[in-house]
């Protein structure tokens, strides 16, 4: 029998946690051959709600599920973890300054990084979803000196999928014919959804679209502000689509990207494209052999360069702020 993979979801009682947990337990994260031990980490006040989620998961009688544990103890949650999905975070509330937000999240992601460092399996893979996702991943990685840096990632796959969806709606192309889209920088409104290397059925997407005003005035802001539009429409932030993107991110990490295509993920920069080494920034990435690799050698035109630099400048500011606060 195969040893179950330990998958830990933080914020297991939250909206995204609720959408994620069932998909993980049903085998959609690691495939139909890998049994799963699911752990839900919550703050003490939300442990009863997480226990309710665990009851519902039990009630699905998923054949691949080895069991569900609920805990508010990070050490227990990350002991032997293979895949850590860090979803729970402190949201920005009214009147909260950025320093307060970063401090509150440093208090979450620092200790979680340390618990991963202490107890995770040697092949652990970490995806940070909770915002500010890039900087939370930076903080967690800084507290896990024994874990290779390339195991820490943050999620921009939802932004990537949103960009694919906008392009398919505009052009009528099939999703499978759209390739080489990229999200650069921070998972925030400064992100740069980049069509300059994208192709549709092998043709440059910019030739198919043939409308620079649409690209700059509609496509880019629609993708970058989609989260706010969902909140406006639904009265709640993206949940099932975020969970779906988290599943995609991990599946691609494990299974690889198709030949000739890439995806987007925020990974620890090696200095590529002038992004300071160590920052967790989104890039076009390929996956193979269980590792994400930044796509090398792409040409950035002047507009792209400016947009990437602006988003990376925001990441640098966040890094300086968490350093000044003593969070790393
Ligand atoms: P919810 O508020 O519904 O759930 C968050 C859960 O996390 C709560 O149950 C809370 O008790 C728990 N939590 C808080 N601190 C914790 C801690 N220290 N340990 C364990 N659990 C803790 O938020 P939800 O809608 O699920 O969103 C979760 C996070 O994802 C937010 O930070 C949100 O901003 C972020 N998002 C990131 C996206 C991305 O693309 N990277 C997109 C979707 C989403 O907005």
Structure, described:
The structure is a single chain. Helix 1 (15-25) crosses helix 10, helix 5 (133-142) packs across helix 11 and helix 6 packs antiparallel against helix 8 (212-224). The strands form three sheets. A nine-stranded mixed beta sheet has the order 3-2-1-4-5-6-12-13-14. It has a three-stranded antiparallel beta sheet with strand order 7-10-11. The chain has a two-stranded antiparallel sheet with strand order 8-9. The chain is α/β, with parallel strands linked by helices. It has helices spanning 15-25, 47-58, 74-78, 98-119, 133-142, 157-171, 205-209, 212-224, 226-234, 240-255, 302-324; strands at 5-10, 36-41, 65-71, 83-86, 125-128, 152-154, 178-179, 182-184, 192-194, 199-200, 203-204, 263-268, 280-288, 291-294. The termini are far apart. The model has no long low-confidence stretch (mean pLDDT 97). The protein is globular and about 55 Å long. The chain folds into two domains: 5-154, Rossmann fold (3-Layer(aba) Sandwich); 157-317, L-2-Hydroxyisocaproate Dehydrogenase, Chain A, domain 2 (Alpha-Beta Complex), CATH 3.90.110.10. The chain has eleven helices and 14 strands. The longest helix is centred in the C-terminal third of the chain and has 23 residues, at 302-324. The structure holds ligand NAX. Ligand NAX is lined by residues 10-11, 13-17, 41-43, 46, 87-91, 108, 129-131, 133, 155, 158, 187, 227, 237-239, 242.
């Amino acid at each position: 029998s195969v040893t179950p993979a330990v998958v830990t979801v933080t914020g297991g009682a939250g909206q995204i946690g609720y959408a994620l947990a069932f998909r993980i337990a049903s085998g959609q994260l690691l495939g139909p051959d890998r049994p799963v031990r699911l752990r839900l980490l919550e703050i003490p006040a939300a442990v009863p709600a997480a226990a309710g989620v665990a009851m519902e998961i039990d009630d699905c009688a998923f054949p691949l599920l080895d069991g569900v544990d609920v805990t508010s103890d990070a050490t227990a949650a990350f002991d032997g973890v293979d895949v850590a999905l860090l979803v729970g975070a402190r949201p920005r509330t009214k009147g909260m300054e950025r320093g307060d937000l970063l401090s509150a999240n440093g208090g979450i992601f620092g200790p979680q990084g340390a618990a991963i460092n202490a107890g995770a399996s040697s092949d652990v893979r970490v995806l940070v979803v909770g915002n500010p996702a890039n900087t939370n991943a930076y903080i967690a990685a800084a507290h896990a000196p024994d874990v290779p840096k390339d195991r820490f990632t943050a999620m921009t796959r939802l932004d990537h999928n949103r960009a694919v969806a906008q392009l398919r709606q505009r052009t009528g192309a099939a999703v499978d014919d759209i390739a080489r889209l990229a999200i650069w920088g921070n998972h925030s409104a400064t992100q740069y959804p980049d069509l300059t290397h994208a192709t549709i059925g092998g043709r440059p997407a910019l030739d198919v679209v043939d409308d620079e005003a649409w690209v700059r005035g509609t496509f880019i802001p629609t993708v970058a502000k989609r989260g706010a539009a969902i909140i406006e429409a639904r009265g709640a932030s993206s949940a099932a689509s975020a969970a779906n993107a988290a599943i995609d991110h991990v599946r691609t990490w494990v299974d690889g990207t198709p030949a000739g295509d890439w995806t987007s993920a925020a990974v620890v920069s090696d200095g590529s494209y002038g992004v300071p080494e160590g920052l967790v920034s989104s890039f076009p990435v390929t996956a193979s052999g269980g590792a994400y690799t930044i796509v090398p050698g792409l040409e950035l035109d002047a507009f792209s360069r400016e947009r990437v630099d602006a988003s990376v400048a925001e990441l640098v500011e966040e890094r300086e702020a968490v350093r000044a606060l003593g969070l790393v």
